[in-house]
# Entry
Amino acid sequence: YWLNLPSVFPTREFTGAWLAATLASMLLALLGVLCFGTLGFMVIQDHWGFWKSFFFTLITITTVGYSDYQLSPAGEKFSIILLLFGIATATFAFKQLVTSVINHGSLRRHKMQRAIDKLSKHTVICGWGHLGRVVCERLIDAGKPFVVIEKDPDRFEEACFLGHLCIQGSA
# Structure
């Protein structure tokens, strides 16, 4: 039952390239909103330079507030549009970040399962206790492939952290 991994993993393969592309698109979207806002305020608000427009864009999309800035009616309307785009983009970026973090764990398990699937003539170590560790050390010294099966989550994570191929479950 614990080897029925295809139901656990998404059908889309999450790779390092996918993760990098996701993070890049998130940053690009945020940068796009910052540029849009800065240029918009520079055009709409008379005598606003780059820095003041950029600062006002940041306090708009972060919903910090306007304090004592006097906006023209066109500037107020633009602020509403920028605020909506900023919040939508920030929400998208946060969702992408959370998805990437969650999928990173899935990617690690998926890579490990693929490596396990490719093994042949390997040894199965039942448990990551003292004896299991000693046997693994001997197998490493002999250059023999092995898989550790451990049901305790902490011991499972320890074996994975040390770079061993592991399956969480009961042997």
Notes: The longest strand covers residues 146-150.
